[in-house]
Fold these 2 entries.
Entry 1:
Amino acid sequence: RMQRLRARLARSGTIGQTLLSILSRGDLAENDWEEIEETLLLADVGVGPTTELMDKLRTETKVLGTSDAEQVRAVLRRELLELVDPTMDRVLHVEPAIGDDGQPHPATVLVVGVNGTGKTTTVGKLARLLVAEDHDVVLGAADTFRAAAADQLSTWGARVGVPVVRSEREGADPAAVAFDAVKEGRGAGADVVLVDTAGRLQNKAGLMDELGKIKRVMSRQAPVREVLLVLDATTGQNGMRQAEVFSQAVDITGIVLTKLDGTAKGGIVVAVQRELGVPVKFVGLGEGPDDLAPFEPEEFVDALLS
Ligand code: GDP
């Protein structure tokens, strides 16, 4: 049956379509309940949250004395929304602050994640969003491992009209570049500094050391306000494992879930937040500069169910 469901998901493209087709059957039989459960699992909602959701769904519909599809749908919507938790703080905290020396210092945001998840693209898009909100932004290319990474960030800087601090030397100390970026941000009176980092997961100890050091060294210029973890929504449980490793390396304050445009697996939002206790703050919906959106729980749940 999982195979049949998988095929149906592939055809319809969204779990919403699959759920709706199950929920359009009128009074739900045991079989239908199981299909709802499997659909949630296939959408990467995760075993824990799915079990929790199904228990609530069954209990509440029992209380209501109905298995009427419309009512089940309403309960599912409410419970999904509760799981996504609209009360989490999803604001990107880049409010102005005054340093120990009485001078204003920029809000710094460290962006971490495995290579290929969309980190650099996210830094570019985020800069675009912040500039549109009248922030003065400086970017730091602390992914010094690959020269192409700094080039890519420079391209984004030019595209959105913000300066990029980088090292011309491949293999330069990423913490030094991050430090310079914040320093330059301070000097230029910028109010936000976004720092892109490398994400080589094959060397876990090295990665942890590197991120810890970057954060420490940046903090000498200004406290690191946000650490955003970029996760690729299409990688499912793999993304969850990455999230665990990164959250051991550095305190994550928010998640950016990229490539939600290319997947029916949006349920990963629920799994990731539950697992890490950290809110999804933005979602990536494409490769262009305007394809980053603040995460809206209601909108998200409605999209899942439409
Ligand atoms: P990095 O190695 O983590 O810095 O990843 P990149 O920023 O280089 O992105 C890797 C690829 O994913 C690029 O081709 C991006 O255009 C693409 N990408 C990034 N974010 C999104 C997104 O939200 N949707 C889609 N469809 N593609 C994305």
Note: Residues 113, 115-121, 258-259, 261-262, 284-287, 291 surround guanosine-5'-diphosphate (CB under 6 Å).
Entry 2:
Amino acid sequence: MISIRNLHKSFGDTEVLKGVNIEVAKGEVVVIIGPSGSGKSTVLRCINKLEEPTSGTIIVDNYDIMDKSTDINMVRTEATMVFQHFNLFPHMTVLDNITLGPIKVRGTSKKEANDLGRNLLKKVNLAEKDSDFPNQLSGGQKQRVAIARALALQPKAILFDEPTSALDPELVGEVLEVMKTLAAEGMTMVVVTHEMGFAQEVADRVLFIDEGVVQVDKPPKEFFSNPEHPRLKDFLGKVI
Ligand code: ADP
Ligand code: MG
């Protein structure tokens, strides 16, 4: 579903990604961890060209994102992003936040989009919030709306960039529950997170990014039980 080969990304003179390789198969959940500033967000942002890769190859569901003729809006629809700070449109209702994408990008009718949106709100346990505005919601509710909005695009994969890092601790669980459901339903997911419990329970593979490359790429059991890599050991010592 997603293939990243030898991805390099520099900001000015600083090379942040120095040859990143990641393969994500259909239905896989890949969790990415690593120190702050190690380039986790940059990897996700390169996948849908919110950042322009410096070099390398990225294929998303057969779209070559480095090919100038690729419709980048289609790539962003197929591999859609959920952000740490939700990025909801503040002037639009919850339902309109969710239906905008399908109407604009998929050409769905307003009525069909509203039906889809209401179903998705049920799915994220927010059925009664359709007419609310984002500022009337808690952080956990906002993030569940953002997930419903992502799902409304009927993406092939969802990229989560620290989806629970901005939440009060008591609201983290409700968002992780929704993400677990998606994983169980077979959604392809790439998740940058510090939630090690989620990684252990839900991930098919866990990746440790440090010093511009993927240092470790293993199933969670091996990843956590036997962290041989010294910098991973050090990192886990700080976060667990
Ligand atoms: P992480 O998500 O792992 O914390 P990021 O991918 O956000 O790390 O950032 C990796 C490095 O790239 C950091 O040093 C950050 O300051 C730098 N960086 C990220 N985005 C930009 C940008 N748009 N311009 C300049 N530097 C950036
Ligand atoms: Mg980040």
Note: The mean pLDDT is 96.
